[in-house]
Each structure stands twice: as structure tokens, then as C-alpha cells.
Design brief:
There is one protein chain. The protein is of the alpha/beta class and about 400 residues long. It contains 15 helices and 18 strands. The strands form 4 sheets. The chain has a 7-stranded parallel sheet. Strands 11-9-8-16-17-18 form a 6-stranded parallel sheet, sandwiched between helices. Monomer. Belongs to the phosphoglycerate kinase family. GO terms for molecular function: kinase activity.
Length: about 400
């Protein structure tokens, strides 16, 4: 696999697949530019070598053609500020205008193409569409780990049309850090799994049971475990058809000598809102009409004690509804414990994308852990042992 460091971009037009699927507010202002900042090293290397960069990305989920709210033109002010230069914009990702702008691009210049998903062919992995994109540049750089699990035209199929296929710094860092967790974990190794559903995490939980010492389970998925063990969960989140699966996970953990740590108390609310009435109850004792929205103080103590003694930490998924300030305490406490383990105990900590990345950045701890993945679903699939089309296409 060619890497950015091993390739000289002098005089080359690099077609770079980036992941600029960033959140925008109602005024089209970017509210979190983490993914844009992550691409600075790759794009800077291309420009410093004397090459030019043609950036391709998707944004949101357009229904079937161009939509104003999903136009990448809204990113231009941030990109200009980030890279300290004008960024040109093609109002289409294929066609004559894109061709002309790409052809006239000079070394040191950046061109941003319009949203790839304005064409259905992108997600279908259409070869003809991939070929049209490929005609715009000399070398293909894939730096979009967040979409590497999709066999889309720009993330995988384009590789067929280039002799020079280069792995960007974001992609490389994601793979290196995941490998560190999967193959080189120092012990004790603790995985913290949160989020809403067991069904989203079952494959990674099963794989981790072969490697971790401790498995902490928090978030909405815990109520399915509690119910399966005969506890009362009120109107908390429940995957009724996954209760047997929850019991199987507990049994497998026992068989493999994995210390599985579950909440002992919960912060509950009488409504799904930040201003709801709330109280703390023991796990399995949630009354009717109430729902669990965070882990309780005893659980925080229990979880942090394990985390702070760990040498390798993987965290994927929040402990509660952290978007509500009154139910973010558990998630923030876990973030603090991970930071403490990293800074004071020399632990290697990988934050596994999605909500966990938002939570750690929101708490202001993003630069105090070992690595924050921008991958989300791609990281999970990679850690489940699946082949990612976007990675395979770089070989």
C-alpha cells in the first residue's frame, strides 16, 4: 500500500476522497470541523510537494439530486480559513465545468467538487461514474476512513482506474491505531461499550470477548440486559428480541474469564427531556412511567475505578443521553477517567468515533486521549474483522 510519505506529488493533480460530512446549523455554519482539520496533513503534503488537490466528499443524505442544504459550497469559508488560501469550487463533481476547473488547476491550488451523493451512481458504486471522476486527476488518495466500509464509486471503485493509489494520513492513522488495539494491547485492556442498541454492537462485543480483560457496558443497551435478568426497567429503551442474546453475552464473558461490569444504579426521568423530573434508583428497580437516561453515581465510581487502572482502553458509545446536559454526567465522568488513565497511567486510549468522539470533544478532552477516531461505523466493522472496500481498493 502506497502512503502519502512514500509518494511525491510534484506536478500531480491528486484526487483526494475526504470525509467532509460535517454538521451544519440552520445558517449553514459548520458546528464541528474535526473531520476537516483531520485532513490538513494529507492536503498540506500534496501542496508542499508541488501538487494540487481536488477534494471529493459527500454531505448528508440527499434524496435524489441537488439540495441547497447539502451543497459543499457551504464549507468554503471554513476551508479557506483552514488552509490559508482560496479554495475553488466546481458546482458539479463530473461534467464539463468540473473538467475545465480541474484541467486549469495549478500546483498549490485546491479545488472542491460538489457533493458526490447528488448522483445516485455514487452510492451504487457505478463504474462509469467512478471513471468520470477518475478522469479529473493523476493520482487517487483515499483519506476518508469514515466511508471506507462502503463500496461506493469514490471510496472504492475509483481505485480500478489508477496505477497510483495512495493511503492518506487519516486512513493510515485509523488503521494503525485500530491495529494497536486489536493486536498490540497492553494489559489490563478495558473496552467500554455504550449507545442505544445491543444489535449495533453485537459483533464487536463478541470479538472483544476474545481479547479484553474488562468489558464495561453502559448506555441504552444496558436496559435490555437488565430486563433479561428479570429487572424492572419502566419505559426504558428495550430490544425485546435481544434478551436471549444479552444473556448469551454474559455467559460467554464468564466462560472466557472476562470481567463484565454493568451499572448498579441509574439516573431516571419521567419524560425524555432535559427538564424532566429525575431521581437515582438501583439497577432493575425503575418504576413504571420512568426511564433510565444515565448511569448513577455508584456506577460512575465502579466504572472509573476499572478504567483508571487500565493500560489499553477502547471506548465506543455514550453512557446516557449526553445531548441533555442533566443526563451527561455519566458520559463526562467516563471521559475524565479515560483522560486520567492516559495522562497519569500511560494508557493507550482509542475513542471509537460517532457519539463517543462528539462527547469527548464536547467535554474538551479530544487532545488529551491517545486517538479520537473519525470512523464510527467503519471502525466498528474493521474491528469486527470485516474487509473494508475502501482499504482493499488501496492495495
Amino acid at each position: 500500500m502506497k502512503t502519502v510519505d512514500s509518494y511525491n506529488f510534484a506536478g500531480k493533480k491528486a484526487l483526494v476522497r475526504v470525509d467532509f460530512n460535517v454538521p451544519l446549523d440552520e445558517n449553514y455554519t459548520i458546528t464541528d470541523d474535526t473531520r476537516i482539520k483531520a485532513t490538513i496533513p494529507t492536503i498540506t503534503k500534496i501542496l508542499n510537494d508541488g501538487g494540487s488537490a481536488i477534494l471529493m466528499s459527500h454531505l448528508g443524505r440527499p434524496k435524489g439530486g441537488p439540495e441547497e442544504k447539502f451543497s459543499l459550497k457551504h464549507l468554503l469559508p471554513t476551508l479557506k480559513e483552514t488552509f490559508g488560501r482560496e479554495v475553488k469550487f466546481a458546482d458539479d463533481c463530473i461534467g464539463q465545468s468540473a473538467k475545465d476547473q480541474a484541467a486549469s488547476l495549478q500546483p498549490g491550488e485546491i479545488l472542491l467538487l460538489e457533493n458526490l451523493r447528488f448522483y445516485k451512481q455514487e452510492e451504487k458504486g457505478d463504474e462509469e461514474f467512478a471513471k468520470k471522476l477518475a478522469e479529473l486527476g493523476d493520482v487517487w488518495v483515499n483519506d476518508a476512513f469514515g466511508t471506507a466500509h462502503r463500496a461506493h464509486a469514490s471510496t472504492a471503485v475509483m481505485g480500478k482506474f489508477f496505477d497510483d493509489r495512495v493511503c492518506g494520513y487519516v486512513m493510515q492513522a485509523e488503521l494503525d491505531n485500530a491495529k494497536k488495539i486489536l493486536e498490540e494491547a497492553e494489559r489490563p485492556f478495558t473496552a467500554i461499550m455504550g449507545g442505544a442498541k445491543i444489535s449495533d454492537k453485537i459483533l464487536i462485543i463478541e470479538r472483544l470477548l476474545d481479547t479484553v480483560d474488562n468489558l464495561i457496558i453502559g448506555g441504552g443497551m444496558t436496559y435490555t440486559f437488565t430486563k433479561a435478568q428479570g429487572g424492572q426497567i419502566g419505559k426504558s429503551l428495550l430490544e425485546a428480541d435481544k434478551q436471549d442474546l444479552a444473556l448469551q453475552i454474559l455467559e460467554k464473558a464468564k466462560e472466557r474469564g472476562v470481567n463484565i461490569i454493568m451499572p448498579v444504579d441509574n439516573v431516571i426521568a419521567d419524560d425524555f427531556s432535559n427538564d424532566a423530573n429525575r431521581q437515582v434508583v438501583a439497577t432493575g428497580q425503575i418504576p413504571d412511567g420512568w426511564e433510565g437516561l444515565d448511569i448513577g453515581p455508584e456506577t460512575i465510581k465502579k466504572f472509573t475505578d476499572v478504567i483508571e487502572k487500565s493500560k489499553t482502553i477502547l471506548w465506543n458509545g455514550p453512557m446516557g443521553v449526553f445531548e441533555f446536559e442533566n443526563f451527561a454526567t455519566g458520559t463526562n465522568a467516563i471521559a475524565e477517567a479515560v483522560v486520567k488513565a492516559t495522562e497519569e497511567n500511560g494508557a493507550f486510549s482509542l475513542i471509537g468515533g460517532g457519539d463517543s468522539a462528539s462527547a469527548i470533544n464536547q467535554a474538551g478532552y479530544g487532545d488529551r486521549v491517545s486517538y479520537v477516531s473519525t470512523g464510527g461505523g467503519a471502525l466498528l466493522e474493521y474491528m469486527e474483522g470485516k474487509t473494508l472496500p475502501g482499504v482493499a481498493a488501496l492495495a
